[in-house]
Structures are given as structure tokens and as C-alpha cells.
Amino acid sequence: MKKQINLSYGILNTIQNAIFPLVTLPYVLQTVGPELYGKNLHAALFHQLFSFLFILAVNPYALRLFSHAMGGGRKAEEEKIFSRIVSFQFMMSSVATVLQFFVIAALELLTPLYALYIFITFFSFMNVEWLFQAKQDYKTIFFRTLLLRSLVLGCLFVFVKSGSDFEQYNLIIAFSLISPAIISFLIARQSYKFKIGISNIKDDLFGAKYFYANGAVGSIYSYLDQVVIGLLVTSKELAVLNLIKTLASTIMSIPNMVNRFIMPDAFKSFKAGMLFYHHSKYFTLMLICLVVGLSLFCFIGLPVISTFLGEDMNFKQSYIFLIAASVFCTSLAVYIDTQSSVILGLEKITTISNLIVATISPLTTIILFSNFTYISPFIGMIIGEFCGVLVMIYMHVFIFKTNFIKYA
């Protein structure tokens, strides 16, 4: 029963994560304006890139360490691992902060706005989401997120009325980025004492090396493309690109949630020798839902989005088609990964696919930039994702000969 309740909170948290940008973005774009929104966005992207590379990318490593400690059933061991992981994160966030400072200084972007996000990067070491995930305590995550986002939403409506409130907007967004980590850390400290130590830094660096590698690959098409493109296009154009990516990731949260939910069924089916029937049931259903849902999105998406955004953004039907294509390709990749590759112990297929995506996406972006400018990173990502899916299928069928259901 407790597991079902936690699952419910996990689903609710996914839903509110999807709804929040759909509520705030239209308001921000109509008050602050796309130009100023883009300026804040570019500064924030540096923080997201460096915190992702040095802290968030190793979340699975931290989750594994703490889960093993929990398996022992000893509070002292959990407390020791808690201090070890947070100490490691403290060292890495310090490195990330220094590197972010030098990169921004080298690009001659060292203004108060960019400095604000350097400050926020340092406090990334307090991110202990892995602890709540290990405990399957999605209830705490849900209510923490709901409380903070409600506060942020209220502050936006009260303190941000026009472009003249840009400084207030910057502080509110900064708060929204830093507060979840601080609140989570304070909650965790009620159960675990923290004592900083560096004796395991070397072990953790080697233990997390593959996670850092995957993080580096993922960052290329998650944040780096927007950081680089933001140096070449206007702030308004960067805002449009980010809006497109936000809408795509918001829609993707639905198939992501569904794939996580049915993953245990795939494990059970594999153990029973029935993985073929799992695929015949869920893959067909997924394709039908994708085709119907994305067709509906292509048909009514533009008028609905334009109504919320206003005329300043000049959102186009071609963006709707690109978002649909991205969601379709990514959904296929996520399904193959979660329902076949991981089930069969072939996670390396996903790693190779990600490398293909991370290679093709920027190369395609460079080729297309002269014709498509700010939209070229998103087109490049779609082409990369499509190639990544083809690689996954090829490796399953011809390299490992699994036919998605069993080893040869």
C-alpha cells in the first residue's frame, strides 16, 4: 500500500513538473518580454550546464551508494555514506563554480546577472534528491516542490508586472533554482548528521567516472547547444528555442512516466519468458497513443499555444511539427531502453546511441545554422535522435541478435 501511495505521489510530481512551465512561461513572456527572458535564460543555462556536469550527472551513483547503505539496515552506515556523498558533491560544486567563473569571464559576460548564477552553482552540493529517491519518499518531493513552486508563482504574479521588474524576476528565478536543494538538505539533516570529509574523494571520482561520461554526453544536447547558440543569436531567438525545447520535454514527461511505470512488468515478463507478449501489448499501444496524441497536437497545438503566448513570440506551425517529430523519436528511444536494453542487461546500447546523438546533433546544427539559425539546434537534435534510434534497433537485431526479447 505504501509503495502505491509513493507511486501516486511520483506521478503527481511528474504532472506538476509538466504543468508549471505551461503556467509561468506565457505570463513571463507577456510581462518581462521574450528579450529579457532570453537574457536571464542564457545566464541560467551556464548554471544548469555546470551543475548538471559536476553534480546532477552523478545522481545515479549517489543513489546506488546510499541504497546499498540502506540495505544494511544500519543508521550509522547510512549517515556515513550521506556525509561522504555530500562532501564529494561539495568538492565538485566548488570545481564547477571556479570553472563557470573563468568561462564566463573569458566570454566577457561577467555581469551581476551571470555572477548570480555562479553563486547558485556553488550551492548545488546540497542537492540530495538521491536520498529521497532511495527511500522512495516521493511524498516529500511532491509537497516540497508544490510549496516552492506555489511560492514562486505567487511572487511572479505579485512582483513582476513589466520589463522594469527584470531584477525582481532574476531573483525569483534564482530562488526557484537554489531553494529545492537547500530545503531538501535541511530536511535530510533532521535524520542524518553531516560531517565533511575528503578521504573517499579519489574512490568516488573513479566510481562515478562513467556517470560523468554519460553526463558529458547528455549535456551536449541538453544545455550546451543553447549556451553556444545564445552567443550567436538574439535573446528573443534564444527564448523561442528554449520554449520549443520546454514544450517538447513537457510532452515527453508523459511517455517517460508511462515507461517507468510499466518497466517492472517488463522485468516480470522477461523472467517468465514472456517479454514478446509484453512488447506486443505495450509497443502497439504506445504507437497508437503517440500517433493519435501527436496528430491532435499538430492540429490544435498552434492556436492553443499562440493564445497563451501572445503575438510577440510569433510561434509557427513548423515548430509544432518539429516538437511532434522530437517527441516521437525520443519516445521510441526511451521505450527501447527501458523495456528492452535495461531488461536484457544491455545498457551499453543506450550509451552508444547517446554518443551517436551527441556527435550528430552538433555537427548537423553547424551545417544547418546558416539557413535555420536559432532553430538549427533543435532540428539537429531531432536528426541525432532519429539516428540514435536506428543504432539501437540495429544493435539489438544484428549485433546482439536479441530481437528485443531474448539473447540468441
Give a quick rundown of the structure.
This protein has 408 residues and is an all-alpha fold. It contains 15 helices and no strands.
The general outline is globular
Low-confidence stretches: none
| Helicity, as a percent range | over 70%
Major sheet: size, sense and barrel closure?
none
Walk me through this protein's architecture.
- This protein has helices at 2-31, 34-54, 59-71, 75-106, 112-122, 129-134, 138-159, 166-189, 201-207, 209-229, 235-271, 275-309, 317-341, 347-372, 376-399.
- It has 408 residues and is mostly helical.
- α5 packs parallel to α8 (166-189), α11 runs antiparallel to α12 (275-309) and α14 (347-372) runs antiparallel to α15.
Entry keywords:
single chain; 408 residues; mainly alpha; 15 helices; 82% helix; 0% strand
How does the SSE layout of this entry go?
Elements: H1 2-31, H2 34-54, H3 59-71, H4 75-106, H5 112-122, H6 129-134, H7 138-159, H8 166-189, H9 201-207, H10 209-229, H11 235-271, H12 275-309, H13 317-341, H14 347-372, H15 376-399
